[in-house]
Amino acid sequence: MKLKLSLILPLLALVLIAASFLGRADSKMNNSKTGGKTEFATLAGGCFWCTESDLEKLPGVIDVVSGYSGGTLENPQYKQVASGKTQHIEVIQVTFDPEQVSYEQVLDQFFRHIDPTDDQGSFVDRGPQYRPAIFYHSDQQQEIAQNFMQEIDALGVFKKPLKTELRPFKEFWIAEDYHQDYYKRNSVRYKYYRYSSGRDAYLDEIFGEQRNTNPVTLRQMIDESKGVTQSRSYSKPSDAEIRDRLTELQYYVTQEDGTERAFNNEYWDNKAEGIYVDIVSGEPLFSSTDKYRSGTGWPSFTKPINDAFIVTQTDYKLLYPRTEVRSRFADSHLGHVFKDGPKPTGLRYCMNSAAMRFIAKEDLKKEGYEEYLALFN
Q1: Among 1, 29, 159, 297, which residue has the fewest nearby CB atoms (within 10 Å)?
Q2: 64 Cβ contact partners less than 8 Å away, ≥ 6 residues apart
Q3: 239-376 — its CATH code?
Q4: Is 350 an annotated catalytic residue?
Q5: Is the pTM for the entire model greater than 0.70?
Q6: Class at the top of the CATH hierarchy for domain 27-225
Q7: Nearest alpha carbon to residue 285 among 329, 323, 238
Q8: Contact 79, 64 (CB under 8 A)
């Protein structure tokens, strides 16, 4: 049976509209411009016009979409959320490339562009729908966010305690099309709103008027407060550089979270004086002054040189929780820390030799680690 043209055309129009919307959603939510792995961060920091604009400036961010999360109403509309009755919060969904930017760096950019201390709204926008929140997508994201917020609170840069909610991610609803890239489509109105909202005046007061031209990250502030030396710059090279530089075992341990064999590794019985640095970045990790013979067959230490150079997180790879140790800047897997060590810390940092390079005391000055000679006086 033939369909009339008058019926076919409306049906075709509906199909094209649906395809257009689905194509936009797929492009926004599963962007594959990098051709590799991507991750999501769902963040609430007041007006999503502003947070979208600020997060899209971060290198490694692929896309930022404005929307709503936190409530139970399906497919909420802006007027419903703005009423404050849906329990939804204005959020942005950030798609980023973890090979270029870490989740903590995304959070760093986020916190430096909001007021994380106000749980009653955000600047001129008042109400629960504008309060700050982080919706974590995994246990790892939760742990990173918790630790980072604790460090920010201890830093005291915001002058008030953080009141940013940390909640599990459940659903993200894309906001109406006219909200997307609002700062580009309506630049004059956006600039007027942003200026009038008081956001930039507040951020200038907290971070200084040079925060855009000469930004200092929260991580840099935290590290400086912990006494991390700035005489050397530490960073993670590209994967190609790492593969070219490391042995197969070193790559397996640091990049694939592997473990070398006990009693069959370079430093488990090393008694020389010196420090151990990250094999990838060179950041200082441990000193021979804190090394002891644990009997495990791996190099063991009671503490790191400086807590600011390491990151700990919960590891469930053996079905039960362990505390994994990673380097701060290179994000190399180093080993694990256990609570069965000797005094004074009672800790055992059980490391992989393949994740580290040993620098003897007599070579510290030549290698650019002269400040650590004081450990051996």
Answers
A1: 1
A2: 51, 52, 55, 56, 92, 93, 94, 95
A3: 2.170.150.20
A4: no
A5: no
A6: alpha beta
A7: 329
A8: no
